[in-house]
Amino acid sequence: MLKSVVTALAASALLAPVAMANPPAHAKDDRLPPGLEKQAKVPPGQAKKWSRGEALPTEYRTRYITDYDRYGLRRAPDGYRWVRTDTEAYLIATATGVITDVIVDAFN
Asked: Within 13 Å, how many C-alpha atoms sit on residue 45's CB side?
């Protein structure tokens, strides 16, 4: 009995480092996985629609829209930017990320 307990403890001590593998780089600092980050897409299961007055999380503020006419958007005033997440366009304050306007399905 003691021998089997000692064997089990030894095996768990040897296998413990394998179970503690490092998470992928994007999991360490709240960034999106690389493929989704480039496309400015929301990870599956985390689809969220933000509304006016809410702050858009920083990881979703990276895909700026500069061709307003192409998407039928009005020009962003000074201190604001249009950003794209999935199929929505958000007009956000550059300093805070607070949403002032939302265009749903702007890219369909």
From this structure: 0
